[in-house]
Amino acid sequence: ATANAGAPTIFDKIIAKEIPSIIVYEDERVLAFRDINPQAPVHVLVIPKFRDGLTELGKAEARQRDILGELLYAAKIVAEKEGILDGFRVVINSGATACQSVYHLHLHVLGGRQMKWPPG
Ligand code: 5GP
Fold first, then answer.
1. How remote is the CA of residue 106 from the centroid of ligand 1, in Å?
2. Nearest-CA neighbor of 52 among 29, 36, 21, 34?
3. pLDDT in the model for residue 58
4. pLDDT, position 88
5. Which residues of the chain are under the pLDDT cut of 70?
6. Is 106 an annotated catalytic residue?
7. How far apart are CA 117 and CA 120, in angstroms?
8. Of 11, 25, 101, 104, which is best to mutate to test ligand 1, by the most ligand atoms within 8 angstroms of its C-beta?
9. In this structure, which of 41, 58, 76, 109 has its CB flanked by the most CB atoms within 10 Å?
10. What global pTM score does this model have?
């Protein structure tokens, strides 16, 4: 993957349902689906249905300003649905140094096991 802002990724195909995923939550702007390579008993990705990355989100557009709150709220809905409200983690890997591999903004929602801190 590259850090080419706004370029298509595999997540566009997941949004379009051209490739299958196990959807946990969906609304007009947000999609949540199970990670194909789970790092915990619950590992769900929460993504906006548009493609701008975290570091490209502008300040002016309400859509962009509001999406982070919507994603975080969807993460809470996912945690509730998955029964992990007692303990879960929300992570955004932004950029190669942080191990981002898919360049479409996404929150990882992880739970169902004891977490460690600090992360590696
Ligand atoms: P990143 O490393 O960019 O923060 O996370 C990308 C995540 O997307 C990884 O955890 C990876 O397992 C997941 N992933 C990559 N391709 C697919 C896919 O085709 N389907 C699903 N469900 N998850 C994917």
1. 9
2. 29
3. 65
4. 98
5. 1-5, 58-60
6. yes
7. 8
8. 101
9. 109
10. 0.93
Residue of 36, 43, 46, 108 to test ligand 1 pocket, by largest number of atoms within 8 Å of CB: 36
pLDDT value of position 96: 95
DSSP letters along 38-96, please? Answer: -SSSEEEEEEESS---GGG--SS-HHHHHHHHHHHHHHHHHHHHHT-TTSEEEE---SG
Distance CA 23, CA 69 (A): 20
For the segment(s) 10-111, the CATH number from 3.40.50.150, 3.30.420.40, 3.30.70.260, 3.30.428.10 is 3.30.428.10
Q: Residue 8 in contact with residue 51, Cβ under 8 Å?
A: yes
Ligand 1 contacts (CB < 6 A) are 10, 21, 33-37, 45, 93, 99-102
